[in-house]
## 1
Amino acid sequence: MRQSAVSFITKGMTLEGIIALPDGEGPFPGVVMCHPHPLHGGSMDNNVVVAVTFGLADAGIASLRFNFRGVGNSQGEHAHGEKEHEETLMAMEFLGALPDVDDDRIGLGGYSFSTRVICAHKQLYKKPRAIALVAPSLEAITDSPLQKDKTPRMIITGDRDRLVNSDGVDEQLGKFNPPADYHVVPGADHFWVGQERQMAEKVVQFFVDHLATP
């Protein structure tokens, strides 16, 4: 795996990120992986985000993890999920434009806070060939336009996470048409400490299934 620091610009803001490329020769499929809540310490160096991107590299898929506006050295101010989709769109464009990445095989993933960003903004569904949501809240998936989108979707959570025990979760999952791949990992809570590998393996396999073939 080869990692390099990068920056890209959207809406006049410079955002920082890290590209991870698999060993070998491209072009590779690529995935943008978004981080959890900035006001609770979330950044591109989060354990879940790193576990997924490292797993992707091992599976032959490039990735871009980046800091949302106002996080780390990324410019701007936190927008409470209302504008973060703008940099997510640009991140997918930036990743797809790299010489070693196949722009026709881009995926999108989010964890916690960033699943709400993804679920709330259907503009994000045009480019990716697959979308993975790690530990979304019930609020994030409720009546989301993603429910009716035809893009392959995956939801993964732990059996100790609040989503599993939320009233109405079965109703909301039932509205996904076509159905989303739904996985519950035993023993895992919202933070995935000690369970990163089990989670990442399933997320990576989902992206392999949908992105590996040109």
## 2
Amino acid sequence: MATVKGFKGMRFRNGDMNTLVCPPYDIISDEQRKAFIEKNEHNIIRLELPVGENRYKDAGETLKNWLDEGVLAQDEKDTIYVYEMEFTANGERKAVKGFVSLVKLEEFSKGIVLPHEETLSKAKTDRFNLMSETYCNFSQIYSLYMDEDGKAYSLIDGCSQGRPDMEVTDSDGTIHRMWCVSDEGVLSQVTKIFEDKKLYIADGHHRYETGLNFHKHLVAEGKAVEGDLSGYIAMMLVNMENEGLVVFPTHRIVRDLENFDADKLIERSEEYFEIEDATDVKTAEEILVKKYNDGKKAYALYDGKKTVVMTLRDSVDMSQFLEGMSEAYCGLDVSILHSLVLERIFGIDKENMANQKNLTYTKIVAEAVEAVDSKKADCAFILNPTRVSEIRDVALAGEKMPQKSTYFFPKLITGLVMNKFM
């Protein structure tokens, strides 16, 4: 099954780590990028999110200079990096702990590393170009594993009881701690434990697929052979049963539809959904929580004038509309919404969704409401979160959820440790 091992991580050697790290590149605005660099010219954002006409080449040259100057250096011994995030979600203080290691890149068809979500080609091209100049993973794939006997978590937890080697606090108040573990006995045990495990990608599908494609490219060009470090990728591995795991929903904003009519939408939806009026979006959210706890499939529709909660009727058999798909896929909130409403009623096909022609996404309810109130959108659908068990079951069925089905929180910070493989 999964091949997991330690690596000589590349890390910053000097400076305030709080000014050297950054959030994931794909959620950073131009203004935020400038602010990070103003605080510290060595912020990792210069490598992870380069800008300009020759941005990828510039990132490669910057990385080389930083290594030559000692700003960055690789650890001398193979290491795993125990990583804990302490954060607040839904009013509760939580913590999730895993570890960063190298994982052998495998084709999804082998069933060892499993995806759960569709990807976009544009994002993969960007990461491929960056990798071509830097030969580095600046951020980690976020993946889950089953730990029925608790051996994996017990091992890494025992290695992280003392003071962490690195600690930073991000703008959301999340504390990121990391312990560097180079004990050969521990590394050997980790490798052994994961020999019979599957890994489920939670976040980072684009980067995983890019890593696999880039390794194939290097082999085809004669620049690498099977077994080289380019055939591995850095991953954060977390126990799927970890109580600190939090998945936020990603809400749908629908815009630029011809002749949009909310009343007609509701009327046509009544064939599949029970419709319940809600006073406002906040009330609808409270109703959705109850529906979620009761195992119901429900959404809130907001069109600027009214808010209704749509609950799938018990009599509706989704296998009729999602022919050939597994029971797990047919039971997903996002699958039901996309199939019955977005595609069947609105006529927004999968290509349209991929190109975000009539559909955009947000994890923040207020942003969805504001888009409608400002007339930038026709309506918004507020969703419940996808359950971690649903992610596992869809992946095991060899299927992928619609894009933007999950939002794991918090996001891994970029810059604590990096993987330079060539």
## 3
Amino acid sequence: MKRLIVFIIGIVTACCVMAADTDSTFVMKALKEARSLPSATNFPLHFARLFIGRPYVAHTLEVADPERLVVNTRQLDCTTLVENVTALTLCVYRKRFTYSDFKKHLREIRYRGGKLNGYTSRLHYFTDWIDDNSRRGIVSEVSQTTAPFNAVQTVKVNYMSQHPQSYKALKAHPEMVSVIAAQEAALTGRTYRYIPKNDVADNKAMRAAVHDGDIIAITCSKPGLDIAHLGFAVWRQDGLHLLNASQLHKKVVEEPMTLRQYLKKHPSHTGIRVVKIKK
């Protein structure tokens, strides 16, 4: 009986996540409003703020086997918040304002080369996401050899292949683990400049390097991982803050504490990488 109940809940959840009516309504309303805004509007930050208050829910993409494009603007984790905002922003930058355009951009940024070809085509590690989308001119990573980019991250990832039981698709399809391992091997050894958390401050160099609406990727020392968390940069009078889908707050929020304070509270967080959505 317990297994039957779990099975039924799974079906209902999958149907709910894959249903597009409320998502399409939200997307079309957001894009319609955006068309009337001044061209100087900070669209990444504008769209990110539309999600404030929406619940944090993990694993919303793990609902289809085989892999399908999941649109869920109602429940977000840190990655899907960044992807939804990026897709909306691309619609405005490219002057494409239909729900089909939004779905096209979402697929474009979520999958390797913009092509959905099964679970392993999804860009699971955010370093891979940055590099793949940078190659296609969608985003650009801020990188410089001067302050505040005072440290270098050498990527070493293997978490997914070492913990396949933690991933629904890998648990169901163990043959995919070797494909993921090969992707991890291709990422491992790449180097990127980042801002160490002790240098995340409110000063001229930081304000020149990081702007409102930039994607913030928090680097970490957790074995097998490259990035621990994502969000958007928001400058306030007291310094830099993070707009994110927060597991702690259980919803999308602009963190009341500064990003410097936030990083200090997490020992495994080492600093930030900075990514811009290209116009």
